[in-house]
């Protein structure tokens, strides 16, 4: 096995728990054997206890190492497991914290009295966000449906994320029927796109794609971001920056395009013809 491909961070949680329990058991038994060795008056028993302690000291670490090597995911399996973790755990956790409330700095202010403050006290409570997650059959793309309140009105966003080793593609959608004729979806979120390109390093596709979801036509804005090598997948700092920036971008888009993202109030109707894609 190529050690460069071995990702111990992708070791199953059950394996980690078993190894931890084995090591804890070794320490406990070692302490118990030491206690018996010191207090046992029988020399023959003391020799047996000493031999058992030596066996445990050598056997348990070797068994734990073998268990790690056998069950650790490496190569393609490690990449697949990491992508699944991003799609189904890390990204949803960030999206569930999307906050569309007005950013008033006076909210949640707490007096500082010379001691470290707890974030739970300082941070204002977030309004609830409804989040649904879906995967394509080949698990290459994750789709998300977010519903939140903006100025007391519900806002619904469909977005999808496609991850490659060194690139992420984010698709933001708005109902085709809500977009004024002759305009692009990008025209309605200039602040979001400015932040995405300047701070997030995204490139905006000049062509906006037409998609159909739940019987309705949607205009799709495509943003692509490239990474250096595969460190995005494995480096916690790079992963954290990506998901935090994604949450900020999604919140900005939902606030800026809230007028376009109102949930449908009637059954799907035949959409007007989609106009030819407008290029930048």
Count of beta strands: 7
Q: Runs with pLDDT <50, length 5+?
A: 1-9, 271-280
Strand content: 15-25%
Helix content: 40-55%
Spatial shape: elongated
Major sheet characteristics: 7 strands, antiparallel
What can you see in these coordinates?
It is a single chain. With 280 residues, the chain is of the alpha+beta class. The protein is built from seven helices and seven strands; from the N terminus they run H-H-H-H-E-E-E-E-H-E-E-E-H-H. The chain is elongated and about 90 Å long. 41% of the residues lie in helices and 20% in strands. Strand 1 and strand 2 (141-150) form a beta hairpin.
Task: State the main characteristics.
elongated, 20% strand, alpha+beta, disordered N terminus, 7 strands, 41% helix, seven-stranded antiparallel beta sheet, 280 residues, disordered C terminus, single chain
In brief, what are we looking at here?
By secondary structure, the protein is of the alpha+beta class.
Could you give the topology of this structure?
Layout: H1 13-39, H2 43-71, H3 75-95, H4 119-122, E1 130-135, E2 141-150, E3 153-163, E4 167-175, H5 190-198, E5 202-204, E6 209-213, E7 216-226, H6 231-234, H7 236-256
Helix pairs in contact: 1-2, 3-7, 5-7
């Amino acid at each position: 096995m190529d050690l460069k491909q071995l990702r111990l961070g992708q070791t199953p949680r059950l394996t980690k728990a078993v190894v931890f329990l084995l090591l804890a058991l070794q320490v406990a038994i070692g302490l118990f054997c030491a206690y018996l060795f010191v207090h046992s008056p029988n020399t023959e028993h003391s020799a047996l206890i000493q031999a058992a302690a030596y066996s445990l000291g050598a056997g348990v670490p070797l068994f734990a190492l073998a268990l790690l090597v056998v069950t650790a995911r490496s190569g393609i399996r490690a990449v697949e497991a990491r992508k699944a973790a991003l799609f189904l755990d890390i990204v949803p956790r960030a999206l569930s914290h999307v906050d569309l409330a007005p950013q008033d700095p006076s909210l949640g202010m707490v007096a500082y009295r010379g001691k470290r403050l707890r974030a739970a006290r300082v941070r204002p409570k977030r309004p609830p966000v409804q989040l649904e997650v879906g995967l394509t059959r080949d698990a290459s793309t994750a789709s998300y449906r977010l519903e939140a309140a903006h100025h007391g009105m519900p806002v619904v966003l469909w977005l999808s994320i496609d991850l490659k080793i060194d690139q992420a593609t984010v698709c933001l959608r708005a109902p085709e029927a809500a977009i004024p004729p002759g305009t692009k979806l990008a025209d309605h979120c200039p602040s979001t796109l400015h932040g995405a390109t300047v701070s997030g390093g995204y490139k905006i596709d000049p062509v906006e794609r037409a998609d159909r979801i739940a019987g309705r036509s949607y205009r799709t804005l495509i943003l692509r971001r490239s990474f250096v090598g595969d460190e995005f997948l494995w480096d916690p700092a790079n992963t954290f920056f990506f998901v935090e920036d994604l949450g900020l971008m999604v919140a900005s888009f939902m606030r800026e395009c809230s007028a376009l993202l109102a949930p449908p109030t009637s059954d799907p109707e035949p959409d007007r013809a989609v106009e030819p894609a407008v290029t930048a």
